[in-house]
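Re: beginner question about structure tokens

> Can someone show what the tokenized structure looks like for a real chain? I only ever see the sequence side.

Sure, here's an example I had lying around. Input first:
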Amino acid sequence: MACNRFNDDVSVFDLGTRKQVRRIAADLCARLGVLLDLKTVLETIPGVEERSRKTLGLRASGTVNPPMDLYFDSETFRLVRLDWREDVYRYSDWHEVDGMGYHKRTAMFKKGAAEPWFHHEVVSIEPLPALPEGLSR
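And the corresponding structure tokens:
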């Protein structure tokens, strides 16, 4: 998996351990295809306060324009916010099904806006009895 490139250069993180950084990278790779590209440049950025919680910040650039800023809860390491273009995506209400975590709610705000312009909520998940041919877990 392309995300193994994180293994050698995790010392740039001031917070968290190498194991935690690898967990963050794995979560990102599972959620955001842009991070699978070896040409994507990743750098740490200052965290922000999101819902009264500290975050760890990461910027993805090089393969996405403009750069994408991702913020992870500093305790759970879950993605809680993504800033891209003129939008701020806020993820909340985390759940787990068959060992896979997911956010139940997403709210999208225009930068600087107090109210979301769009939101959605996952109301149910039904695991497939088997993966379609050609896919592996």
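Each token stands for a local structural state, so reading them left to right follows the chain. The longest strand covers residues 87-97.
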